[in-house]
Write a structure and sequence with these properties.
This protein is α/β, with parallel strands linked by helices. It folds into two domains: 2-233, 3-Layer(aba) Sandwich (Rossmann fold); 256-387, TPP-binding domain (Rossmann fold, 3-Layer(aba) Sandwich). It is built from ten helices and 20 strands. The strands form five sheets. It has an eight-stranded parallel sheet with strand order 1-15-8-7-4-9-14-10, with helices on both faces. Strands 17-16-18-19-20 form a five-stranded parallel sheet. A three-stranded antiparallel sheet has the order 11-12-13. Helix 3 crosses helix 4 and helix 6 (280-289) packs parallel to helix 10 (367-387). The longest helix is centred in the C-terminal third of the chain and has 21 residues, at 367-387. The protein is elongated. The relative contact order is 0.12.
């Protein structure tokens, strides 16, 4: 990977004052839309039919996970690449922190044409005020038309603060993104009315268009170490005095939802189990398989299992290699949370249940006979393997 770095020295920028103009340019090859193609940037001086003038480009806020880029940001770089290509504009990555060299380079490898970054001691750990200050300053100066942020604890907090500072709209917790190319509008889909419908939402009059996007609903960007990109670093003046929050330390808690989200195998139970006592069938099968335990909203609302296990539009989205649905009918809200699973195995007495149509393997029968028998057989096979 090769890169060029633009680093204005001694810049002091107040995000409440003036703006820098967005630039119009042409990128070839490394733009990433079609290999070897030249893609021309469209005019930065207007937004067709509606919206504010002078905004161009798609930006992804880069969230850190340990020493590298978080999974949701990798997914958004992949999604952002397609949106940028549809609009004919560059893909930008917004990187903030106190030690960000590796993140800047990784963002380019993952598809960013330009990295807009700023480093400061106050950005070592996430806090709303300093992150909102630096992010809004860069957005106001370089004026992207779209800003995408992961719908994580950090992302949801930052996105709300940014939307207020930038005086723009924010669509939260989205599950799909596309472009209305005629009007140059970001079209987002998200669950609405308790997950009973999917709403398509646009922000026609304000820029940037902002959205937070659920983790694990999109394919991550494919790394390309040969990619070329530009890093633009802004040195901004920031006083620590106004910061009302200080981080004293971190205590790691057991996060069931995080385990569920990263699991390769999940066994989930629904209303068909009929009681909390019967939900143990799911837990026993999961234990035999070394799998995580999931549940539908109905099972959670009935009090059989905690909300941390809820999968679907009103819970978490999962992407396991194998998803086993036990006594789950497959309402659209639940299917939206499991549709990216590699293999879905459904056990249900109703062959017409929606989950059976979505399943890779549909097992029609009495779950109260099938699941215990399956658990016993798995334990037997594991026992034989251990004796060898």
């Amino acid at each position: 990977m090769s890169q060029s770095v633009t680093e204005p020295s001694g810049v002091s920028y107040n995000p409440k004052n003036g703006r820098g103009g967005a630039r119009s340019f042409t990128l070839a090859g490394s733009f990433g839309c079609n290999k070897g193609a030249t893609v021309e940037s469209r005019s930065a001086n207007r937004v067709e039919e509606s919206g504010e003038k002078g905004h161009e480009g798609v930006w992804v806020f880069i969230e850190r996970d340990g020493g590298g880029i978080a999974g949701v940001s990798k997914e958004l770089l992949g999604a952002g690449r397609k949106l940028a290509c549809d609009l004919g504009v560059p893909l930008g990555a917004l990187v903030l922190g106190d030690d960000i060299d590796a993140l800047e380079k990784e963002a380019i490898v993952l598809g960013a044409d330009r990295v807009y970054s700023s480093r400061h001691d106050s950005l070592r750990h996430y806090r709303t005020d300093p992150y909102a200050f630096f992010a809004s300053a860069l957005i106001k100066k370089y004026r992207p038309e779209i800003v995408l942020i992961g719908a994580t604890t950090t992302g949801r907090d930052l996105a709300g603060a940014l939307a207020v500072e930038l005086r723009t709209g924010l669509c939260a917790d989205c599950t799909a993104l596309s472009i209305d190319t005629r009007r140059r509008l970001l079209v987002v889909e998200k669950p609405a009315f308790g997950g009973n419908i999917l709403a398509s939402i646009v922000c026609p009059k304000r820029r940037p268009q902002m959205a937070t996007v659920r983790p694990r609903v999109m394919e991550p960007a494919t790394p390309d170490p040969s990619r070329r990109g530009e890093i633009i670093r802004e040195n901004l003046h920031y006083e620590e005095n106004p910061v009302a929050l200080s981080i004293l330390g971190f205590t790691k808690e057991k996060d069931v939802s995080a385990d569920l989200a990263s699991a390769d195998v999940i066994v989930a139970g629904g209303r068909g189990l009929k009681s909390a006592e019967n939900f143990k069938l799911v837990e026993d099968l999961a234990q035999a398989l070394g799998a995580a335990v999931g549940a539908t909203r109905a099972a959670v609302d009935a009090g059989w299992v905690s909300y941390a296990h809820q999968i679907g539009q009103t819970g978490i989205t999962v992407k396991p290699k194998v998803y086993i649905a036990v006594g789950i009918s497959g309402a659209i809200q639940h299917l939206a949370g499991v549709q990216t699973s590699e293999t879905i195995i459904a056990i249900n007495k109703d062959p017409e249940a929606p989950i059976m149509k979505a399943a890779t393997l549909a097992v029609v029968g009495d779950l109260f006979k099938i699941v215990p028998a399956l658990t016993r057989e798995i334990k037997r096979l594991k026992g034989e393997h251990m004796r060898r």
